[in-house]
Amino acid sequence: MNRIAIAAANCRNSRQGLLLKAACKASLAGGALLTSLYNQPHIIRMKGKTDLVTEADLAAEAAITASLQEDTPGIALLAEESAKDHTSDHEGQLWIVDPLDGTTNFAHGFPYFAVSIALFDHGRPQVCAIYSPCMDELFYACAGKGAWLNGEPIKVTATCQLIESLIGTGFPYDIPRHLPELISQLKTILLQVRDIRRAGAAALDLAYVACGRLDGFYERELQPWDTAAGWLLVEEAGGRVSDYAGKPFSALAREIVATNSSLHHKLLPLLT
Ligand code: IPD
Ligand code: CA
Ligand code: CA
Fold it and tell me: Which ligand is nearest to the CA of 107?
């Protein structure tokens, strides 16, 4: 069995299995494209002062979209580089795609980036895949069935003490507007945890919480395509996901706290 077939078999449900197969296949197709362009010179356009888009974001999005449309015709799609309005809840099924999460890393040859794909139904993630091409790691999850990395079940850490935890975070592109809050949170959290990582790809950071490489992650000013897949992965791996106030997470929430669950109530007060 190849790894797409193994993913569907792990899912043990024909409808969810088909959707998961489509998500895994599209994420591997996007990942193959990113790999082929990774060591080439890039065509870079600026979306903001520090916010890049490369030829690889666009090419990966085209490959992923084509794959999803072929395998699941008729399901609507929200993908970062072609997104227009995504401020309202979507009724029914919707693919949410980040073709290249970690564009800055990709453009600098820093091998921490991923493809992120999730299928939502009435605002809840049902299946998801996050593929890290440089590590050849395929994370996926199925609502109610669990989370896996390259076919093996994954779960969050059992760490209960902040001082024993490794916490991930990220910084928004609009740094000047958020700098005081970012610095104050870093000052507070750095003193209470073992260490902090800012690796540069929110979807992959969430996958790392799901598989126990990080004990928690927080970031604000994120978009649905940054969090859609990682949200399901963390929950299916036994973790907890909320906004900074501890309220249930939603696809349109701009801020996320994801932990191994045990640390959630300890991390939340440090963010507010
Ligand atoms: C970004 C990455 C980064 C996070 C930013 C995101 P992009 O996504 O996930 O880690 O800090 O907030 O926008 O632009 O590389 O897809
Ligand atoms: Ca992203
Ligand atoms: Ca992106």
Answer: 1
